[in-house]
């Protein structure tokens, strides 16, 4: 088993170092190899995703990724910006299924902007299709309008499209994931208005016939956005397209109130995956030793479960994280009165100790 370790920029290096410590403490047989990505790679090799980094990622069974980006790269041409590294990895590895769990830990219910009783025990998995939809559909561009409300005016256009196989494969991922959870899938669409999402709904309904043990319901995206803040615990697995998933997964992550806690995974059809925290490189706190490493440590747990076939080791990490929270240890982002404030390194070391 080989893990490509790509720490990236900002707090990426600090939080990935802690996740690597936790992985090493498990005493499993895997090889880890590190390479620069994002702004760090641009500085070292003139490109956010150098050939050598991409090759390492392709050969690995899984990629542990920190975060990329810093305001200082904002003036670069778009293809050279750090964020392009993630898009490049998704494209080259065919990472079409994005898993974003939104879990509200018992000890952190106060951190949510919703009432504690609405989020206590929250455990939702949002599965977002990552390689299709309006973000990648062609044609797209700018032109002079020849029809519509303002002929002759400048206009811009994008194309929303999904093919049957693209919908089928993400639907299967969702039903399979639900089998390991509470066996409920909510498919989110806008079939009342969009042809693309009528096909989405039809195909998800057809694929569901192969999963009679799973309960399926369909929900329009506007209602889903509303239900996520009204009654979030009604959801188990939510599956949706790229754009709706982008928005809903961020909304769901905020229900937990603590961006530093949320892992994510992006998988291809060979179960090769990229595992990263849901947050960015946080340049405002980089180098201060205060970043919360738990999202990255929990991403490493997802990596063990989904790509490296080590579910027991994943359970051990998740239990250790719960244990350090129960001990009252908190990085500043999740700190509250009567808990103990710790830095990035102390938090990582506490998780190692709690592995038992
Ligand atoms: P961000 O997620 O980096 O930070 C948002 C806020 O959350 C900041 O106040 C930050 O201090 C805090 N925060 C984030 N992670 C934290 C952690 N682990 N512990 C404690 N606090 C944490 O988002 P941003 O500030 O909008 O973006 C900063 C840079 O990150 C930009 O260059 C952006 O493009 C990039 N970005 C990268 C990714 C990625 O690598 N996948 C994702 C989002 C943003």
Automatic annotation (TrEMBL):
Transmembrane segments: none annotated. GO terms for molecular function: 3-isopropylmalate dehydrogenase activity; magnesium ion binding; NAD binding. Its cofactor is Mn(2+); Mg(2+). The keyword Lipoprotein does not apply. Mg(2+) binds at residues 222, 246, 250. Its main location: cytoplasm. NAD(+) binds at residues 280-292. Pathway: Amino-acid biosynthesis; L-leucine biosynthesis; L-leucine from 3-methyl-2-oxobutanoate: step 3/4. Binds 1 Mg(2+) or Mn(2+) ion per subunit. Belongs to the isocitrate and isopropylmalate dehydrogenases family. LeuB type 1 subfamily. Catalyzes the oxidation of 3-carboxy-2-hydroxy-4-methylpentanoate (3-isopropylmalate) to 3-carboxy-4-methyl-2-oxopentanoate. The product decarboxylates to 4-methyl-2 oxopentanoate. NCBIfam families: leuB. Homodimer. This is 3-isopropylmalate dehydrogenase. It comes from Ottowia beijingensis.
């Amino acid at each position: 088993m080989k893990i490509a370790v790509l720490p990236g920029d900002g707090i990426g290096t600090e939080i990935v170092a802690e996740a690597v410590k936790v992985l090493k403490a498990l005493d499993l047989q895997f090889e880890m190899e590190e390479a620069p990505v994002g702004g760090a790679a641009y500085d070292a090799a003139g490109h956010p995703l150098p050939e050598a980094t991409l090759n390492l990622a392709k050969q690995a069974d899984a990629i542990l990724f920190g975060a990329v980006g810093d305001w200082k790269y904002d003036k670069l041409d778009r293809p050279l910006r750090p964020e392009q590294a993630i898009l490049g990895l998704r494209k080259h590895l065919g990472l079409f299924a994005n898993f974003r769990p939104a879990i509200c830990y018992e000890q952190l219910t106060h951190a949510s902007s919703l009432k504690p009783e609405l989020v206590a025990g929250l455990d939702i998995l949002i599965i977002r299709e990552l390689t299709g939809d309006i973000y990648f559909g062609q044609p797209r561009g700018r032109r002079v309008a020849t029809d519509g409300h303002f002929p002759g005016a400048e206009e811009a256009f994008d194309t929303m499209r999904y093919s049957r196989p693209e919908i089928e494969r993400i639907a299967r991922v969702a039903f399979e994931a639900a089998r390991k959870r509470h066996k409920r899938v909510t498919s989110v669409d806008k079939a009342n208005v969009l042809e693309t999402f009528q096909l989405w709904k039809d195909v998800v309904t057809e694929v569901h016939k192969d999963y009679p043990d799973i309960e399926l319901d369909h929900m329009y995206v506007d209602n889903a956005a509303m239900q996520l803040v009204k009654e979030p615990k009604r959801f188990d697995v939510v599956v949706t397209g790229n754009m709706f998933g982008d928005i809903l997964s961020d909304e769901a992550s905020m229900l937990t109130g603590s961006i530093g806690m949320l892992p994510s995974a992006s998988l291809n059809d060979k179960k090769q995956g990229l595992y990263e925290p849901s947050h960015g490189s946080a340049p405002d706190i980089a180098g201060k030793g205060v970043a919360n490493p738990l999202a990255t440590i929990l991403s490493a747990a997802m990596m063990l479960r989904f790509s490296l076939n080590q579910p027991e080791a994943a359970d051990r990490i998740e239990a250790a994280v719960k244990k350090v929270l129960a001990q009252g240890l908190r990085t500043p982002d999740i700190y509250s009165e009567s808990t103990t404030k710790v830095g990035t390194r102390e938090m990582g070391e506490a998780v190692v100790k709690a592995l038992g």
